[in-house]
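Bit of a strange request maybe. I'm writing a small parser for structure token strings and I need a real example to test against, not something I typed by hand. Could someone generate the tokens for this chain?
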Amino acid sequence: MGNLRLDCATRAACAPAPIHKFYGTSAWILGDAEVQLNKLAELEAVKQIAAFPDLHPGPVGVAILSDRVHPHMIGNDIGCGMTVFRTSLSAHKLKPQKLADRLRMLQDYSDLKEGQAHLRSAGLPEDLSPNAIGTIGGGNHFCEVQVLAETPDPDLASRAGIAKGDVLLFMHSGSRSLGASIFEEYAALGPEGIPAGDERTHAYLKWHDLAVRWASLNRKVIAERAAAALRCDAELVVDSSHNLIERYGDAFLHRKGAAKADVDLVPLAGSRDAKSFLLKPTGNIPEALSSLAHGAGRKYDRASMHGRIAKQKSVRNALARTSYGGRVVCEDKQLLVEEAPQAYKNSEDVLNQLVEAELAKCVGVMTPVVTLKTARGADERRVKR
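Reply from user aminoacidic:
Good idea to test on real output. This should exercise your parser:
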């Protein structure tokens, strides 16, 4: 969402909207994030806010209920989310370096005709950034091989179609150039948003919904390509968006880095050198706005990471390995540093706070084997509409 501007429409005659914070004193929450929450609560149309332990400046890690539609609350990566597939690989036969070498072929891979075919099969217009379908992107996006190391609740895991020892594919990506192109046309509106009945609202939501579908398809195509590279079968476990707008009663629910929790299973991503989790939402807390944390959340911003990671070649080379014996494939040295594990909060602490708040139960604990990232700034064709 960027930096929230201070010249937005504010509540003139009533108190700010309530902010429900689902994190305790142990959470690493930067002050800027809470300042931004307070500014959001002053917007006239905002009715309620839920903030989660992955909260960081943006703000990211929030669900916001408003009478208006606010494109700024979603930003340019509309439909960003996470998808998990169960593979036919055997955990005891995994060789991280061999897997990394096979996944490397997915770097910056795109094919116009193949992209068009995927879009047609999904019932989407074939001119919606077809050349970007199946690409991961930069930033914190990834394609990972994970092992389901623990199932604290085997019955819930079984119902979800997973079991201890399963090898999973875990994708995090969004709508790429399509979402950026859509947001570009609404960026000048500012954080105050647009009224529900405005023609611009209907137009935005139409494109927004296409971008959400596009992003989901993109993650599935990434998984298909990864499975082909790894020479295994893959079956969908869960597809979860955490950057979107939905109707919620008579208002609009904006989730920015907050996973939909009105589903059976939700992924919670750690860093590339930390545990990730599969959660069962309880649905017991209305103030949470049917949402959950989507990951560990950033502890430090990207710019500051270059000063926090030693410049010695040996230190930077070590970023390509993990404490789990895993591998990290990332040809962009700058991205490797900006997304270092030290940049993120403790994912286990985030999980514990969600459990203590009675928002979710842990169904599965995943440990990383290979993380594939891509170079930032890959050339993409802008969508023509």
